[in-house]
Amino acid sequence: MREVNKLEEDAYQIILVDNNNEEVELFKYKEETKIAITKVGDLKEVEIISKYDDEGTIDFKKTEYIINEVREFIITDVRNTGRKIKENFIFEVELETGWVKEQQSKFTPKWKDSKRDFIIKTKYDENGIRIPKGADKGRNINIPKEEDWTLMKLKTETSLTSFNTKNNTKGIASYVYYNLLQNPRQKIKADLITVIERDYYREELDLIYKNQERFHPELGNRDLYEQAIQLLYPNNLNHQKTIKDLDFNHLIKEDILLYQRDLKSKKSLIANCIYEKENFERTDEKTGKKYKNPLKAIHKANPLYQEFRLWQFIKRLKIIKKEEIVNEEIKLNVDVTSQLLTNELKEDLYAFLNDKENVTEKDILGFLNKKYKDLDISTENYKWNFTSEKEPCNPTRYNFILRTKRIKGFDYRTFLTSENEYNLWHFFYSVKKKDEFNKGLNNVISRLLDKTGLPKEFQSELVKNFSSFGGYTNDYGTYSEKAIKKMLPFLRLGKYWNSDDIENILSKSNQEIKQKVLDKEEINGEVKTFKDFGFLVRVIWFMVDTRKLEKCSFGNRLMILIIT
Question: Of the candidates 194, 312, 350, 529, which lies 20 to 30 Å from 37 by C-alpha distance?
Answer without folding.
Answer: 194
